[in-house]
Write a structure and sequence with these properties.
homodimer; about 450 residues; alpha+beta; SH3 type barrels; Fumarylacetoacetate hydrolase, domain 2; 2 domains; eight-stranded mixed sheet; 11 helices; 26 strands; about 25% strand
Chain lengths: ~450, ~450
């Protein structure tokens, strides 16, 4: 059993906090969660620094470091969190992550003697702004939903939807780091080469098939040296935590450009992450078994382990809502589009780590994996509009009577995520939000 | 005419230096070159800092900064070069790059009064070690040789070698930054999933078809904001310089994994750059016309410009040699494998920049593009063993009687590059070298 799968006192569902908002029903950030972000007071010129969410507050880790309350490894970890990026803290490894989590859990609990020292370190989430939680050196996007791969494959390659390697290889490719931004960063509809099916030549055009992709983001903590392989059963030591990830996609640009070397401009104009990183340790109660039907190809040895079969999967609920400009003006609520779970993933996070390093590729603190679009087995669980609209052929009905096949200018996409089950405290991921601006 | 295409006094072929080795015939680093690297004395614990090559010496830019000789923009630029990575200098833009180049050219010329102040700032290249010249945030690999794309296409897709998008889209994909290392960094043969053509299932194996790729690396200097497009005629302002780039490839892993999202583990185990960045400005004399036959598709507007047609291409000679363990033991010279030129590229650097940003993707100082394997029109100009051995079917004869189809353990691949023509001083890129170690 690794630290990341073992329940400890920080997971106790009975724990409450002296920060009262953390104890409210359906709060994303109860004391069992304790996710990390980089923040400062909104509109200020303060230095960005690390923070931990508790209820509707941010615990300022720079202030906590100076509070005199913490000591030992936890205090050493806080020193690393007083920085505009969490890379150094992420590089410290799980002993430090766990020590800080335990210390914060104990300090924020109801009745803790820390309240007098730490109350002044809280800032309302409503009053802060975020930036990326770390410097993302390399970003790799996987393709782990077989339901997504099959649906999309049907659209791009009707005669050959699921390629023969899919059930053997955790397919992934390198994405663009520079254009990953934090929730709230709106962006312009991209332009690119598009070739209509009946046209003889491509044209330069604003994208007409702009889509979201509902993904889980996975942050690497401790890295590995070039040439060193990470064993599947050691993968958890290298996984710092998880976020929500919207990997915006220009389907028409993608269709024309993607062969033979994969998607490029169809993806690298923008990707958006939620500000909070929910730690691997916080998700321990929501791990579940990973199964591969006996009739399917079984994983090669480096992707196989008993531990991975027992609890390699994560039951993270993912939801997408769409708020159109018309809804916003009319004060109408956003319309539901998708709901699925990361537990449907064909490959686990540990398998992604083991696969990524089997050739000796080095992962570094702050690197990010995208899970790939997390579509589930039913149509309602599709994690993109490409799938929901069946390649743009079927209109998606919104609650206010509008319809969409792909995203229009002014549309705001809202992704939320949470984990919930009997016997555990519900924890949330917050949200990732961005709005499509018109092309120049 | 942009600064990068205008000849100025720094290009004068008559210039000589008081560093005598710079004046020798066939010297890679005459005073007309002045390339940048990050270095320190070999085996020391000195701080890595910027250096400029002159003859067989490195001008220590940290020492030059402190010499009291330089002033104005050049001195400001030197301050940025006194750092373990050149990103801040690269971000300063072409006014600063040109000012420093001119000041260094004047200071290092025969008869300059700087000799007494700067002679002490020189360190023999034989006595230094290098690291990457900058932090490479994102690395994009293009695919700009139509000869390479056609030859490789034939091997991977016999019925469909050159895809319909090739002549319209400067095809590129994102590569791995973390595993790019500087010349001299040996690496282990990668392992990965391989499926033999007649096998029903893949196996995990050490790569059996390990290859080099002879590429030009292009470093971005000044970046662009997310959402901003770089016009093709402004591209030169964003291109800091060029290096030699060996993008090692595991052909058997590639064949099995690359569909539908492109190469991944087949490439990201190692890439190797030469230590020296030859600046865009230094290459001005070696620009040449870029042509697209009238019978071929003409570029879309954003990829088209008169300036690009006039001098968008670069005549950079690229050569690969192979030194086997047996040659090394016997003291035999390395054996010639490939010789070609970057002028054969189907797309220019300016077209790569314009294409990469047409969707608003942001480039950042220190980002690198690979040109893609630079194979020329004839078989002898093929830039990879995959092509030279026709997919492994034909043995490559080496000078000492050995043969190869792909690389073996102990093989050292040496790439060199240079520019040479009537009326200009020959300038060189130095070399990029690495040796294949056995898999674990």
């Amino acid at each position: 059993m690794s630290y990341a799968t073992t329940l400890n006192e920080t997971h106790d569902p009975q724990l409450t906090s002296w920060v009262n908002s953390a104890n409210e029903e359906n709060c994303d950030f109860p004391i069992q969660n304790l996710p990390f972000a980089i923040f400062r007071r909104a509109g200020s010129n303060e230095a960005f620094r690390g923070g931990v969410a508790i209820g509707d507050q941010v615990l300022d880790l720079a202030a906590a470091k100076n509070s005199g309350y913490f000591s030992g490894i936890a205090q050493t970890a806080l020193v690393q969190c007083d920085a505009p990026e969490l890379n150094a803290f992420m590089a410290m490894g799980q002993t430090a992550w766990s020590a800080l989590r335990l210390a914060l859990s104990q300090a924020l609990r109801s009745g803790a003697d820390a309240e007098s020292k730490l109350a002044g370190c809280l800032i309302a989430q409503d009053d802060v702004e975020y930036q990326l939680p770390c410097r993302i050196g390399d970003y790799t996007d996987f393709y782990t939903s077989i339901y997504h791969a099959t649906s999309v494959g049907k659209l791009f390659r009707p005669d050959n939807p699921l390629l023969p390697n899919y059930k053997w290889v955790p397919i992934g490719y390198h994405g663009r780091s520079s254009s990953i931004e934090v929730s709230g960063s709106d962006f312009k509809r991209p332009k690119g080469q598009i070739k209509a099916p009946d046209a003889s030549e491509p044209v330069l055009s604003a994208c007409k098939r702009l889509d979201y992709e509902m993904e889980v983001g996975i942050y690497i903590g401790e890295g590995n040296q070039l040439g060193d392989i990470i064993d599947i059963d050691q993968a958890d030591k290298h996984v710092f935590g998880f976020c929500l990830f919207n990997d915006w996609s220009a389907r028409d640009i993608q269709g024309w450009e993607y062969q033979p070397l994969g998607p490029f401009l169809a993806k690298n104009f923008a990707s958006t992450v939620s500000p909070w990183i929910v730690t691997n340790e916080a998700l321990a109660p929501f791990r579940c078994a990973w199964q591969r039907d006996a009739a399917e190809p079984q994983p090669l040895g480096y992707l196989e382990s008993e531990q991975n079969r027992q609890n390699g999967a994560f039951d993270i609920q993912l939801e997408v809502q769409l708020e159109t400009a018309q809804m916003r003006e009319a004060g109408q609520p956003a319309s539901h589009l998708s709901l699925s779970s990361f537990r449907h993933s064909y490959w686990t996070v540990a398998q992604m780590v083991a696969h990524h390093t089997i050739n000796g590729c080095n992962l570094q603190p702050g690197d990010m994996f995208g899970s790939g679009t997390q579509s589930g087995p039913t149509h309602e669980e599709a994690g993109s509009m490409l799938e929901l609209s069946i390649g743009g052929k079927q209109k998606i009905e919104l609650d206010n009577g509008e319809t969409r096949t792909f995203l229009e200018d002014g549309d705001t996409v809202i992704m939320r995520g949470w984990c919930q089950k009997e016997g555990a405290k519900r924890i949330g991921f917050g949200e990732v939000v961005a709005t499509i601006l018109a092309a120049d």
